[in-house]
Amino acid sequence: MYPRRSRRLFFFSWRFVPVLVALAVLFISTTAVLSYGTSKRGEEEEEDHAAVLRRFRDYLQINTAHPSPDYKSAVDFLLSQASEIGLDSRVLEFVEGKPLVLLTWKGKDPSISSILLNSHTDVVPAEREKWLHDPFAAVQAQTLLLSQYS
Question: What global pTM score does this model have?
Fold first, then answer.
């Protein structure tokens, strides 16, 4: 008899975790811009886009690579972004020196199911010699952001 295999609903790899964090930051940043109204046109819309991109770049520039990740800067950044759009936040430490940031976005209808997005902020060391740019500079090249996290 063969052991029973568990069925996965989706494929997951730890390589994608930094991307999930970056997407969460981008989502929070974009939501903050959208919450100010959708009737903006032209120059104001470009300024909002630039602000979202600037916040995303600021986050990508935080060096959380091992062996000494800068958790404090990452946590401070996430807390400031959450505060700007009114999210409740808590910092927990189940392991000393390794903070967990818990952000809560309360909905209007508590009977609706919730969703949990989970990620981490630290990454493997960057092999700087293999990069054309500093991996933590978040250099913008046309429509791409070049960073270890993006």
Answer: 0.64
